[in-house]
Amino acid sequence: MCDNRRDEKIIGGFIVKINKHFLDLQDSYLFSTIAKKAAAHVEANPDAQVLRLGIGDVTRPLPQVAVDAMKAAVDEMGVAATFRGYGPEQGYPFLREAIKAYYAAKGVDLAADEIYVGDGAKSDIGNILELFDKDNNIIIPDPVYPAYLDANIMAGRKVFYINGDEGNGFLPMPDAIAVKPDIIYICSPNNPTGSVYNRGQLKVWVDFALEHGAIILFDSAYECFISDKTLPTSIFEIEGADKCAVEIGTLSKMAGFTGVRCGFTIISHNLQFDGQSIGKMWMRRQATKFNGISYIVQKGAEAVLTPEGLAGCGENIAVYMDNAKTIAKTMAELGIWHVGGDNAPYIWLKCPNGLSSWDFFDKLLAEAHVVGTPGAGFGVKGEGYFRLSAFNSKENVAEAMRRLKNIL
Amino acid sequence: MCDNRRDEKIIGGFIVKINKHFLDLQDSYLFSTIAKKAAAHVEANPDAQVLRLGIGDVTRPLPQVAVDAMKAAVDEMGVAATFRGYGPEQGYPFLREAIKAYYAAKGVDLAADEIYVGDGAKSDIGNILELFDKDNNIIIPDPVYPAYLDANIMAGRKVFYINGDEGNGFLPMPDAIAVKPDIIYICSPNNPTGSVYNRGQLKVWVDFALEHGAIILFDSAYECFISDKTLPTSIFEIEGADKCAVEIGTLSKMAGFTGVRCGFTIISHNLQFDGQSIGKMWMRRQATKFNGISYIVQKGAEAVLTPEGLAGCGENIAVYMDNAKTIAKTMAELGIWHVGGDNAPYIWLKCPNGLSSWDFFDKLLAEAHVVGTPGAGFGVKGEGYFRLSAFNSKENVAEAMRRLKNIL
User: Fold this and answer.
1) For position A27, what pLDDT does the model report?
2) Who among A5, A20, A287 is closest to B133 (CB)?
3) So what's the ipTM on this one?
């Protein structure tokens, strides 16, 4: 920090300097490219019923208990006696207690002040990078959710990929790392592949991070789709994770909150680097650049985490997972290599006939009026693969699969 | 960006490096220190009626039209046919059109795609720094809202202050700048001083920024309190601002949305540096690290900007501004130097008897059970001054002023 309370001449002739790392970003974001292609197809084929198994967005309505809670919260805001202004940046205690209980039910013991409520996983997983020096090596699986990479490119950080492939079931392990690892992204169940690390694999990751003084950023956005009880739904089910991992969770997929916006980040009091508490640093970041999320949304989130709310979420999840099974079954019948769909709402398939990801996208759109997601959009190693999503109605998924069978 | 698909040995023995700039932050955030002192006072004086004229938070409930709109939106989310998932990161067109109309009414012509909806001014004003190289000189008024400074300290940026004082009415002008200016923060009406730049002064700022290739980050959070029609409520009322300024607005104070969360950032298509559109860069930042705000909140914000909603806001604003007049009148009667309170909900006063800001805070709390905000919390030049806020009931403000008169 400097001070200009001194005599100095203004040096003219220069303009404000932009962050040049933005120029390293690919020009178009995956999903907007897909949206544009789909829109052009609809315009050219006004009579076609286009079925969207592309973007990972939920389609089913909120559980009624969340609706009721949010309406009651809105009413509170309209009356002086119950009106609420700024809430705690970290989230109201009632919601942090509810998240704590949700984790306790899966055997993970958290303190409520280890939970930081936010407006969604994408925000937190991007913003948390600010806590770390630019000079860290970033380890990112390939393929994976593209926001991880873009957030790092924007900051000019050094990114190293670890490759997913058919050999490792798109679950790369630490032996794929050839540099000093500092910040490691893990997404399990994985977006886009739907593959899930088992307990032994996550233990290897945790031990590796502890050994190398690295931090794991664990994205658990899809944990609610895990039905196999032997699979971990939180990194904190693994011993030692409290000392090396941050978990970023969300109600987006679990409770249909993609348009409501509520996520959370979990940082153990035991997570320290250079003698600094990462949780305290995150709190300071949030208190400076964030003002908490809507009280109304927090009341809805609290309701979702009650037994009644969780039952409502479960009904929606069951519909999506039935769809996933339908898609996986179709792939099996067509003899198409695939992973996912058993403990995740995504099916990751190898494009038939050696087609590239975008060629298969174009074929599916042109011939079947079905929108999917090209694997190449998730990384170099996604080329030749394709993601189908179970987020749609049972009828639409069944119809999409009929059409796929017809054209393949 | 690097690639590790090559043979390289892992270099061990180091751990992930934290962002050391966080260590340069002052240990405690202003308002949490105040909250702790107030809580301790309440505990020590359980029978005292403590009156809070400290934090800048609204106290009056939402306009009914916003309540109705949000309840209807919640209902939509509970039904499959009207359920909405991810919305546009930039905000729904209906809300951007409503904000456009709000600006049109004050004579500012915007395109809807120059408006970026966000979760609040604090988020946007911090995050927008990411678009600019670290090597820019940051110009910050002193005193001012502390989040500007903290966001820059965290990023290790070079901060230069421009001094507010009684001589300039706490409205520093460009002649106070002694370095090459790159990024200039302007907050008008100012938080904490309540002083407002007039049209001529803002024109000097815009011309200065254009001449020096600098960008102005204009925080208009308190524009709704301006009643003097000759004063500008938006930087875009000044010719040339489209080419040098970003405006960050919010519904927090205007519509009582501090706990609902809705702000917006306005970036003209004409704002370019190094041949790059700042609006496009911001869109890319938001699409990568943000997922838009709640549909429910956006429907509430749209309702607030209807004539009925604005009338409801106006009633609340009138109450606060009556309070501001009461406070300013008391200061005048006590012969205490002050600014603000006429077009802003804050009164900035010189601590009587040469007391320091925190000594006056302690005196007010101990002797009058009134919580205010020490000016020193807003910068070095705030020492010896004090902020009183009009955000409270008419009765509480009147009672607080009675107590002040008794002890001074």
Assistant:
1) 67
2) A20
3) 0.95
